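WARN retry 2 of 3 for item q-0093 after timeout on previous attempt; input resubmitted unchanged.
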Amino acid sequence: MRNCTPAEFLERWPGSLEPVAVPEPRPSLPSGARRDLVEFGLPRDVSSLCYNDIGLRFTGTATPLAAIWERDSRIADGMGDIPSGWSSFWHLADQEYLQGGGWICIEEESGRLVVVDLDQPEPVYLLSATLSDFFTTLAHFVEWSETTGGLPDAIEQLSEDLREQSVVPVQELEPFWMNFVDATLDGDPINLIVSLTPLTVRPGEYFDRLDRHP
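OK item q-0093 returned
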C-alpha cells in the first residue's frame, strides 16, 4: 500500500470524484479535510462485491445526520430520537448491504469517517481515521481488484499484505475493510471486487465492462 492523495486518485481514475457541497453553517473540520471535500470531493459510488455485497452511495453534500435521521425515520418504525452526541456527525453517503444499511459520516473536529449502522451491536464504527487514509485504502483496493480480478487465491495474499503494511494502521482497517476481506475468506470461494461502480454491477459484468471500455 502507498499513500494516495485525492489529486493522485483523480489522475489514476479520471472523473471518479465529485466535489462535496458544504452548506452553512459549516461543520468544524480539519482544514485539510474541508479543502479536499470541496476541491476534490468523493466518489459517487463505492461497491464491495463479495460475500455480502456492500454499496456506498455518496450524495455530494455534507448534511447534518439529524436531518438524515428525520428523513429516514419517516419510513422506518422504531428509530426514536437521534442519540445524544451524534450531532457531530455529518452525513456523506448511504450504505446498503444484503441484510441492512446505514450511513457514512464525517465527524466534526476529528475528521474521522465512520459508519453508523443501527443494526450493529456497536452502531458507530470506524471507516477511515482521515480522508487521506480513505483515499489511500480505497485506491489500494480498486487497483488490487483491477490487477488480480479478485480471485480467491489473491484475497488470501491481500489479507496478509494488509496486515504487514505500515501505511495505514491495521487496527484502523479492521472495523470495515478487513472485516469484509476476512469474512469473504471464511466463506465459500468467491471473487472479491472493490469498484467505483454502482452495486448493481456484478463481478463478471465489471470486468466485461473494462474489456469493452479500456
